[in-house]
């Protein structure tokens, strides 16, 4: 007998800050089946118990080894995975705490925080190489089971995916060589679930610059995604952007899948 499960992804821009500001209560009230967090900026020992080990969840973390308060991903799952692992097998990426993979009975879930491409620790060439290595990693795993990949991918794919495409054509996050990697993922058989289900929906964003008050004006970017390999797409019933949830410069995204 099949059932529906909800998977939520959220770049929290500091998990301790989200907890301190009271926004962690949103997760506690929603109680998704699986919760994928990016940019935790913390290691497990720095977290309060209710964040480290929420009741009813198995918790998994990958934290930055190069400096504290940087990068990091976590997954909270009501369903215990068959196995799990950190990283993609490339040390310079794995030491930044950017990927967690959980193997479930019907699919493999990959939670990703892509380098922004605009910093000393994650410059553009580093970011572009990460896209390539991640795709290679996903393709290897796909021979075992269908793939669901979620995270802050740090690029808007098409003009519809950001409020001001013309002004950002030469800016990191909307460069042609970055956008081409989203094309490559799609050509490899991974579906952008939100755009597939909402092909013409404009003004649907997941990130806004906090300093300029962009969220109030909805001057945003859609840079957070759920990708699914084509063979599991018939099982995905919804793909949503939860733009009414605050606490970060990103909002959560979700899919509902029948397993």
UniProtKB/TrEMBL annotation:
Keyword DNA damage in record: no
Gene: xth
Annotated site, Transition state stabilizer, chain positions: 154
GO biological-process terms attached to the record: base-excision repair
Marked site (Interaction with DNA substrate) residue numbers: 250
Binding site for Mg(2+): 11, 39, 152, 154, 249-250
GO molecular function: DNA binding; DNA-(apurinic or apyrimidinic site) endonuclease activity; double-stranded DNA 3'-5' DNA exonuclease activity; metal ion binding; phosphoric diester hydrolase activity
Family: Belongs to the DNA repair enzymes AP/ExoA family.
PANTHER family: AP ENDONUCLEASE, DNA-(APURINIC OR APYRIMIDINIC SITE) ENDONUCLEASE
Cofactor: Mg(2+); Mn(2+)
Cofactor comment text: Probably binds two magnesium or manganese ions per subunit.
Keywords: Hydrolase, Magnesium, Manganese, Metal-binding
Annotated site residues (Important for catalytic activity) in this chain: 224
The UniProt record lists the keyword Magnesium: yes
Domain Endonuclease/exonuclease/phosphatase positions: 10-250
Active site: 113, 152 (proton donor/acceptor), 250 (proton acceptor)
Top-level taxon of the source organism: Bacteria
Protein name: Exodeoxyribonuclease III
